Amino acid sequence: MEPEKDSDKTDEISLWQAWLSEKSSEARSHLFFFYGQWLRMITRLLYVRYPHPLAEWHDYVNLASIGLLQAIDRFNPALKTRFQAYAEPYVKGNVLKGLACYVRDSRKMYQDRLVSLSDSGEESGSDLEHVANVAIGLAFGLFLESGIIDHEPEASNPLNVYEVEQNHDHLNECVRQLPPNEQQVIVAHYYQHMSFTEISGLMGLSKGRISQLHAQALKRMRQHHEHFTSGVRW
């Protein structure tokens, strides 16, 4: 593993200082996303080491994310313990506990998306256009979900690898273009596989507001995608 950069260490200290002084949902959210790459590395190890016949990759990520939030809430930097060393047992413990009583049911997450897009308030010329817009939004969400999550190309030839990398780069650029709140909702829901209720607790916003931000973000990303494919840049 590469040594930590000085700038990263400075950012980490600043984020912890903000969290300890404010104890706000925003400060906790910033810490959560700061450790996102580390969390995915730990989750990948758990996914390989502890396979479950009913659970998929995104289920492991969701359980690990909850463990990370628990560790952030309970960590005391004054103990001079490295946070990752402190947090790892929380992450591993929550994943294993979740797998032990796991029953797979993703319907609620997709229902949240449907409600979000149906109630987005986007004007359309007819009921048929509204239904079409909702369907396109759901389809784009699935495209986003399958593109952000790590996938191996179907054939490991250079062309397929290049196409997969190009799709990932474009999706990541779409996410980076979003306003901060919308970006956090998209990353938490599609990348960390958190429900709207869990994101609501993380960001300190109502579930209804999370639903609005989700719909706004998907609309904005669709527009960016259309501009990109037509050769027009923001």
TrEMBL record:
Keywords: DNA-binding, Sigma factor, Transcription, Transcription regulation. One of its GO terms (biological process) is DNA-templated transcription initiation. GO terms for molecular function: DNA binding; sigma factor activity. Residues 195-221 form the RNA polymerase sigma-70 domain. Pfam families: Sigma70_r4. InterPro entries: RNA_pol_sigma-70_dom, RNA_pol_sigma70, RNA_pol_sigma70_r4, RNA_pol_sigma_r2, RNA_pol_sigma_r3/r4-like. It comes from the Bacteria. PANTHER family: RNA POLYMERASE SIGMA FACTOR FLIA, SIGMA FACTOR F FLAGELLAR. This is RNA polymerase subunit sigma. It comes from Pseudomonas palleroniana.
